[in-house]
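Handout, section 4.2: multi-component inputs.
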Amino acid sequence: MRNSLSDVVAAALRVLDAQGLEGCSMRRVAAQLDVQPSALYHHVPDKQTLLALMADDIVRGVGESAREPREFCVELRDAMLAVRDGADVVATAAAFRLGASQIEDRLAELAGPDGARTLLLYTFGHAQSTQTHVQAAALGALLAPARPAISAAAPSTAAPDPAADLDASFGRGLDIILAGLAAFAPTRRD
Amino acid sequence: MRNSLSDVVAAALRVLDAQGLEGCSMRRVAAQLDVQPSALYHHVPDKQTLLALMADDIVRGVGESAREPREFCVELRDAMLAVRDGADVVATAAAFRLGASQIEDRLAELAGPDGARTLLLYTFGHAQSTQTHVQAAALGALLAPARPAISAAAPSTAAPDPAADLDASFGRGLDIILAGLAAFAPTRRD
DNA sequence: ACCTGAACACCGTTCAAGT
DNA sequence: ACCTGAACACCGTTCAAGT
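Output:
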C-alpha cells in the first residue's frame, strides 16, 4: 500500500497552504507525493471532490464545544484563516451543500436554520475578503519592502493594524446579526 | 478601429452567460470576437481585470434609486442572478476592493459602514449559493429528464418551487440583519 | 490496490511582427 | 491603435498497462 486517501488530502492541504488555491493543481499535489498525476484518480474522482475533502478537514471539529453562536462563528473563522485560501475552499465546497452540511446543522442547533445560514454566509464572506486583503497586503509589502520612514510623524494613531481592524469589523457584523436574531426569537426566560 | 474595450467586456459577458464562469476563457472570448486570443491583451492587462470590468457591468446602476437597504439588496441580488455565475464574478471582484467599491459606498449611506458590509457579504453569499443550487438542479433535471409520474399522489404541498424557497430564505436572512441594524441604530424619529 | 507513461484537449500570457 | 502567428509553460482527465 503506497498512499491512502488521507495521504492525498494531507498533501493537497500542504500544497494549498504553500501555493494558495491557484497553485493547488492536481499535478502539484501529485508531485508532493512523488507520484504521477494520474495516480490521484485512483483515490478521488476529480479535483472538485478533493477540494470538498480538504474543506471537511479544515472545518473538522469546529464548534463542537461551542455553546453560543458567536463562539461558533469565531472558531469557524479561525479555522478557515489558519490555512492559506482556506475560506475560499470551505465557502465553495459549502455552497454545494448549503442546507446539508454538518457545520450548518450544528450551528442551526444554536441559532435556528435561518440564523445559521445567515451567520455562515456572513462568516464565509468576511473570512474570504479578509484573506484576499491579507494576501494583497503581503504582495504590496513585497513590492515596496522599505518601511515608510518619511511620514512617521504621527506616532500611534497612524498605524492601524489591518488584521485587528478586520477582526473588529467581523465582530461588529456578528453583533448586528446576533442582535437581529435576538429580536426575532428573544431569549427564552422560562 | 476594430474592437473597443466595451466590445471585449460585452463579448465576455455573453460567453459567461452562455458557458458559465468555468467556460469563460480568454480564448473563448476572443473567438466570440473572431480574433486571436493575444488580441485581448491590447484591451486588458489580464483576465482578472476583465472579470472586474464584467462585475462592474453586472452591478451597474444597482440601488441608484433605492431608499432603503432592503430594496437595495434585492436589486443587487436580482442583478447578479440575471447572468449565469454573476454572483461569483461580482463577489470575487468585490472582495478585492471591499471598503472601496461603489456599491458599498452607496449602501453605506443607507445602512452605515458596518451594516453595508454585513448586508453585502450576506447578499453575495446567498446569491452565490442560490446560483450553485439552480445550476445543480438544472444538471439533475438533465440527467433525469422524465417527469416523476409515479409519486404524483400528493398534489400541491409536495412540489415546493426551489426558486421561491431561496427567495424566501434570502428575505428572512435580510430581516434578521435589518432587525439587528435597527437594534443598534434605532430609526430616528425627529 | 496502487501506480506509470503517454496522450488529449485544453489553459493564460508574451512577444515579435504586421497594417 | 489593433491585430496575427507562433510559442511557452502550464492545466484536468482518461486509459491501457504494469506490479
